[in-house]
Amino acid sequence: MPITDQRPLPTLSEGEKKAIKESWPQIYQNFEQTSLDVLIEFLQKFPEAQDSFPKFSAKKCHLEQDNEVKWQASRIINAVNAVVGHLDNEVAMKQYLKELSVKHSSEFQVDPKMFKELSAIFVSTIRGKAAYEKLFSIICTLLRSSYDE
Ligand code: HEM
Prior knowledge:
Structural class: mainly alpha
Bound molecules: protoporphyrin IX containing FE
Shape: globular
Number of domains: 1
CATH topology: Globin-like
Order of helices and strands: HHHHHH
Number of strands: 0
Radius of gyration: 15 Å
Helix content: 55-70%
CATH class: Mainly Alpha
Largest sheet: none
Distance between the termini: 27 Å
Strand content: under 5%
């Protein structure tokens, strides 16, 4: 199933939550490299997205060695880690992602279509199955939510 950012918000079954909780620690154990791979592939595929990041928008090459790029990559995977931590607390998960959505829309002014693109690269990098596609559909839909208000 492709990742969507459109409501209705998907719901994870208990089995899907369990599959994520069991597999996530192994993915997260390598969080620095994994998140860097994701962000670098994203910036290669969508070079215009680099303009959104003031701390490295002007950097032309060796992005993978740039400390600001590494820091940004780790912030993304740490946000996903926080969402995984909220799997059994829907209210907290929604609130967390809603706050991030507000920042992305009003403070960072990111094109909301890009959430899906980055998420697809994330899921493919971690070789995530259907449960992860659903998780990232939830993340994308909620990250988009403040744009539609
Ligand atoms: C799964 C998708 C994403 C997640 C989980 C995520 C997560 C985050 C987090 C946790 C922060 C730090 C927020 C803070 O300062 O409190 C952040 C900042 C930011 N994000 Fe995202 N993000 C995602 C996708 C994107 C995409 C696709 C773009 C751009 C095309 C983007 C652009 C930015 C920018 C510009 C900042 C601020 C950078 C700065 O502080 O200089 N994000 N993001």
